Amino acid sequence: MIQIKKGFLGRKPFLVYRIWMTTRLSLLYKENKQLLSLHI
């Protein structure tokens, strides 16, 4: 997993990595909101 990330960063600029991280965080946030709504 770490090796894949290193290769990805080596080929692509940091901007792409930031966009990927923001999309991942937004997806996690949406999932957490759904879980919270289920608990409430």
Report on the architecture of this protein:
The structure is a single chain. The chain is 90% helix and 0% strand. With 40 residues, the protein is mainly α. The radius of gyration is 14 Å and the shape is elongated. The model has no long low-confidence stretch (mean pLDDT 78).
Task: Summarize the topology.
Elements: H1 2-11, H2 14-39
Brief summary:
The protein has 40 residues and is an all-alpha fold.
How far is the N terminus from the C terminus?
35 Å
Mean pLDDT: 78
Number of helices: 2
Sheet bearing the most strands, described?
none
Strand content: under 5%
Radius of gyration, whole Å: 14 Å
Query: For this entry, what is the oligomeric state of its chains?
Result: single chain
Silhouette: elongated
